[in-house]
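Need tokens for this chain, all 724 residues.
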Amino acid sequence: MVEVQRYPFSKDAISELRNNAFAADSWPLVYVLSDEKHRRAYIGETTDTLTRMSTHLKHNEKQLLTAVHLITSEYFNKSATLDVESLLIKYMAADGKYTLLNGNLGLADHNYYQRDALYNEVFREVWNRLIAKGVVSRTLDHLDNSDVFKYSPYKSLSFDQRQGLLTILHELLNPGVKNIVIEGGAGTGKSVLAIFLFKLLLSEKNHIDLRDFSEDEAEIQSLLTKFQATTPKPKMALVVPMTSFRTTLKKAFRHVSGLSPGMVISPSELAKQHYDIVLVDESHRLRKRKNLGAYFGGFDKTCAALGLDKHSCSEVDWVCQQSDKAIFFYDQGQSIKPSDADTEVFLHLKAAKDSVTHSLLSQFRVKAGQPYVEFVDNLLNGRVGKKEVFRAKNYEFEVFESLGDMVQAINDKETQVGLSRLIAGYSWPWISKKDSTAYDIVIDDVQLRWNSTNTDWINKVSSHNEVGCIHTTQGYDLNYAGIIFGEEIRFDTESQSIVIDKANYFDRTGGQGIKDPEELKQYIINIYRTIMLRGIRGTFVYACDKALREYLKQHIPEHAPNQGDNWTPEVVDLKPYVNAVPLFDLQAAAGTFSDLQNAQDKDWVAVPNDIQVREGMFACQVIGESMNRVIPNGALCLFRPDRGGSRNGKTVLVECTDSIDADFGSRYTVKVYESFKTEDEHGWLHKRIQLKPNSYDQNFETLELNEENALQYRVVGEFVCVIE
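Here are the structure tokens for all 724 residues:
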């Protein structure tokens, strides 16, 4: 499907590109310019390769690159090359071998003919060829699960996010606006928008690559040009309150031209300098002076440096004071501790004359979408109808009776797709922090430990064997999340509502000083809502409290313990030539096929219910790849006896008297039968026979039989179907 060819990138070597038929004949193609020594690269697409390369050689930065890889394919059209270019930029930025010189991409993904049916596979082959050439190193499956990929500034934006971007750009140009609040629930893409915007505002004019697919992009290009005229080199910072998530975003910034890890800072680092623009991701986690533990000293020191009253201010005030323009990405529902800045602080901020608020509504983390988000909120707040059960075809949502079964299910998902983690409410002390041999969570025969690190725990090797909490998972995406509702949250059958047991809540700074039980309940409900929105593909749930477990079972499909890998088939009474046929081991067969048929100790195997079984039918295992378009390697197949007549185009089992089939490994072979006959005065005569492979691998050759060697082969069966 794809070819990747390397050429030197220089004025003297440009003529070599004329030898490439795709480049010379103006085919659409994709290219990677790179410099191995300085680890910098640029990715592009073009239909005029020679002119484009000449243009790049005049560019201040790109002319310093030393090699060009041309990626060509007869399947490429303009839409496909734009898509491959876009995907390459996203994945190569996450791969991390090169720092990319590219600017932001087009704002939206655009569909085109056969994109899913063909071009997804084309791109996978492009990537594998680039691995072979040493241009990239990590597999696509690995990168899909990496946070560096998820939080890349090269992501396309949803319609909702594009409208948010337009709002922000308009208000950045409005001298009457100082604060912009972007509100959105978990999974609405606040972090992706923040990072995209950050990269966009810092891009040099010749690095901006927005494409005019829509009016949105034309308007954004115009607004950006005006912004750069007024603020050509803005001093910017991305504030992230949570240590773990801040570490992850620093990694995402490391290999992007124009960005650096030092641009991602903690709130206290704001005291070091004043900024033109400060973006705050997860701003609901900005703190006030309450339940700060070891951070009291740092908080007070920063307040003193900024000349603010430590008793009345919050980190929100730090942001406002240290920036000309502040952009807050905010979700009230994810405030999970009494140290978080009060809701009233943000209400006051939004109501100010120099503030503007914009809401993101579309949910695109969780595949079940906004209905799932609303259901979780209603479930935790007792607003679900008595008979309401949430089901989604594209989302696995189950409640477990056994914690052991849920742990096994998460381990299975980790093996299958990766990025599957256990998360629990803070209902157990962190004993293993001081004693690594101790278990923190012991339920029945299940023994588990809390996360062994606070920093980037999600991506730590073997973290799937541990249990994360809200502090190590907030802001992250998972494929599957296994949620353990601890002993601090129960269900009261009399009031038919969720209640909180403060004695079993062990987050020291999470409950200290709270006198109103309803206030603590709201924090804990927010915690469970937040962690239940981590799983992209599915969420599994177990509750320690039996009454709560029963409540959840009323509204969440219950996990069936014997499904999946633990499924045991129904025992069927096998009746020869009624619902079963003999199973022949052709690999071990020493004699002829007739000897096998006459054997007394036959094994029998069931056949599909819709197959009419007749005497003489049999089954055997087909080994090899020569028929893999129809028969997977190792599949059990059903055959009927050869009945003569025309076999042309049919798949048959052939006995080879004097040879061994290399693919099948025995005297038997399965192939597609074709015969070619001639006629003379005596009638029809066989001239030759072909036994053809039917494989995706084109290296398998057709076996040609003439009149002489045809006698060495005998058709013994006609293929019926693969037995599942």
